[in-house]
Write a structure and sequence with these properties.
The protein is an alpha/beta fold. Helices cover 28% and strands 21% of the residues. The longest helix is centred in the C-terminal third of the chain and has 14 residues.
């Protein structure tokens, strides 16, 4: 069954909606240029006493050692999401430094972007395929853009992978049908305005994922 990650969670109400709706992963953004950014202190407050049945993911962009150590100390996430220019070698370093699993985001615009995926075997627990941002974009993701899903049709990797980029309640079922994605990721697709998520849209998205998922 396909699992979903709600990324950019930033309020107790949004966290509760994601957890009650059955999200498998909760994404917290640690990147100051994002409208979804949270300080590590805010993440601590948000997660205090929260049901951690869903896996906690902290998204970073080319973070340095000091920041990664602070994430490990203050948040204790299950995964670090690398959404910058990190290499497989850097992913190994982040794993060793934080003790967390690794999700690596890869930008996709054409089939050539899928070359060399084998280099990530052993370096990342999950790959996340996102739309390549336009030239000059201030952020590497969370822009509400999608890419040609047929590029991922039949993709066979050793570990489950995420489909991201422009997903929303009205298209995620089709995205799962086309790609067979075992994991999906949404952020802007469940927002009223950038950084402001709507619990009703989160539930609608998770319902669509559940209904579209192949049954075992």
């Amino acid at each position: 069954m396909t699992q979903a990650k709600i990324c950019g969670v930033n309020t107790p109400e949004v966290l509760a909606a994601a957890v009650s709706g059955g999200a498998g992963f909760i994404g917290l953004v640690s990147f100051e240029r994002s409208p979804r950014h949270l300080s590590l202190a805010a993440m601590q407050v948000l997660l205090a006493g929260a049901d951690r049945a869903a896996k906690i993911v902290v998204l970073t962009v080319d973070a340095d050692e000091a920041h990664l150590q602070a994430i490990r100390r203050d948040v204790r996430p299950d995964y670090i999401q690398l959404h910058g220019a990190e290499t497989p070698e850097r992913a190994h370093q982040v794993r060793d430094l934080t003790g967390a699993g690794i999700i690596k985001a890869l930008a996709v615009s054409d089939r050539a972007d899928l070359d060399g995926l084998a280099a990530w075997d052993g370096a990342a627990d999950h790959l996340l395929f996102d739309a390549r941002p336009p030239q000059g974009a201030a952020r590497p993701g969370g822009l509400g853009q999608s890419f040609d899903w047929t590029l991922l049709a039949g993709l066979n990797l050793s570990r489950p992978w995420f489909l991201a980029g422009g997903l929303a309640p009205d298209n995620v079922a089709e995205a799962i049908r086309v790609t067979g994605a075992p994991l999906v990721d949404v952020s802007s697709g469940v927002e009223r305005t950038p950084g402001v998520k709507e619990p009703g849209l989160i539930h609608a998205f998770l319902d669509q994922v559940r209904d579209a998922s192949p049954r075992p």
